[in-house]
Amino acid sequence: MTQASSIFHATNITVGYRTDRRETILFNDITLNMAPGQLVCLMGPNGAGKSTLIRSLASLQPLLGGMLSHRHEKHVAVVLTDRVNSPHMTVEELISFGRYPYVDWKVSLSEKDLAVIKEVIARVHIEYLATRKLYELSDGQLQMAMIARALAQDTPVLMLDEPTAHLDLNNRLEIMNLLRQLTRESGKAILVSTHELDLALQTADVVWLAAQEKITQGIPEDLVLNGSFDEVFKFKGFDLKSGRVQHSVFRSMSIQLEGTGPEYLWTKNALERSGFNVGPGGTTTVRVRDLKWQVENESFSTLQEVLKVLSQ
Amino acid sequence: MNSGSAGLKLTALGGLMIFLFIVSLVSGSVPIPLSGVFDALAGTDNEFSEIILVFRLPKALTCVLAGASLATSGLLMQTLFRNPLAGPDVFGLSSGAGLLVGVLIMTSQLTGILFFGSPWTMAIAAGTGAALVFLVVILISRFVTDNTSLLIIGLMIGATASSLLSVIQYISHAEDLQTFMIWGLGSVGGTSWNEITVLAAVIVTGTVISLLLTKSLNGMLLGDNYAKSLGINLERSRLFILIATCIMTGTVTAFCGPVAFVGLAVPHLVRMAVPTTNHKVMIPAVVIGGAGLLLLCDLLAQLPGTTQLLPLNAVTSMIGAPVVIWLIIKNKRLRI
């Protein structure tokens, strides 16, 4: 990646905390780069310093060394994990804060500011929430409002710290899809720290893997195949390359499974989870077709019954 | 809330405040008809002129200025600490101001130099006292982020200042002690026109600073990190909040004593009428609300039909404390 396509870069930065007595270094001498239209997922084990890195990149806390290409409120907007404790505020008011870098001390919103606020509300599809108070919102709705607030800041770079934490699958998907669309449509560069391995692997253009004071950068597939993920996360019983949880075989019976499509996959999943060795040349044959299972000559309508019979 | 309805509600609040102001001129141990009040104010000499111009008008004006100052200080502190129970009296600012005034009185006894020739000296001393306490609270708030602990620490600092003050009282002369006791009960009577001028200058300065801080104050509602991410200079804003709060609380405390609860309660009371978090509306609203509440408290302190005066602090606490309890029960938790 050339510097020319960069929209934000950090050069040789050292991130951490410095007090009078001691220095805690979380990342040492790292160089990072974000290109327009790129969705970057920042991943790493708990305590690796993902939040601190985001705060440092957004100039919310001082660097221990190095340089940032931009440190301006009109260039970088953030969504943090900090709770906004003003339940009386309306969603519209919250979003209008995004226009603060553009307004004077009187906080008079211009026609343009109001137009931007309206636009981002529509962009995030929260028109129905605009006049609600913050305490009336669900966690997912509040997160969408916070994202709208950051969008109203109209910056080329967006940084979000764990925007999908504590949300259900639907909300998580909605947010990741929205972020992805934003990079595609508006050319924004977006940095997201997340724990959601599956979502990150499927949406990120680039992954930054945080571990041992360094960041490993690359496209997700490369990092999976070259073992970087395994090294960082030290998966316990999960095979990332196949995307499966590893099951140990603890039953003597081996099963030959016949069938196709999702039925086949989920049946295999259930059998392996229960400790059967599934493969060609198995001693017992299980057939699945049209949601009916046949074990030898017996027929069943649920997998539960199949497992029960096989376990006996 | 749109600005139109906010403006309407502010006007209504203002109307209520003016009504209370007029009532406080009319009522008292000697009831004066409205026409008499206006004649006296217009300069037409009549039998009521002295009562109005020497007693009631200064007192009513003091209520307006002191109430507005305390309420604005309360709002600024609640936003700064993001703590709905913050206030100049709660965090010990009033005690700090009182302590320095006490020290000054004692020094003047010992040295024979009269420091109280000018109300400015008194205001500056009290403001410095408040600022010292505020600085300690801000310093501690860097390490203690949890609201309840900070509140308790504020109370403890206030208690320390109060205890030092009682030591000073204990070793001071009997006649000074009485002055001190009365001062400690809080009073809006007995302010001279000179002192009112100082109060007016201070509240104007404090309010102007607050209004100029509108954007920063609003930003602080989102928390320090978000405020910074919006380009708000937190260090500078904190300094100006400290200056505004301390000159206002300090001066009021110097002239009227440590008036309790107004700073804490008014922002919450006002928000019931004007439900907003926007300081552009809140600042004028608490100025009006604080003025109105202290006028009302002073009216209630003057037991109707008698010449008996209740201590101001007794009334503000009697109104303020139940209001806070009721608010906590109603809202489960207070909102800033």
Give start-end ranges of low-pLDDT stretches of chain A: none
Helical content of chain A, roughly?
Answer: 25-40%
Oligomerization status of the protein chains: heterodimer
Report mean pLDDT of chain A, rounded to a whole number: 88
Q: CATH homologous superfamily of the largest domain in chain A, by name? A: P-loop containing nucleotide triphosphate hydrolases
The count of β-strands of chain B is 0
Strand content of chain A: 25-35%
CATH C-level class of chain B:
Mainly Alpha
Residues in β-strands, percent of chain B: under 5%
Name of the CATH architecture of the largest domain in chain A: 3-Layer(aba) Sandwich
Query: For the report, how would you describe the main beta sheet of chain B?
Result: none
Name the structural class of chain B: mainly alpha
Identify the most extensive interface between protein chains: A-B, 32 and 26 residues
Shape of chain B: globular
Compact summary:
Chain A has helices spanning 50-57, 91-96, 111-123, 139-152, 169-186, 197-203, 220-225, 228-233, 261-273, 303-311; strands at 8-18, 23-34, 39-43, 65-68, 76-79, 157-161, 189-193, 206-211, 214-218, 238-239, 244-245, 254-258, 277-278, 284-289, 292-295, 298-300. With 312 residues, chain A is an alpha/beta fold.
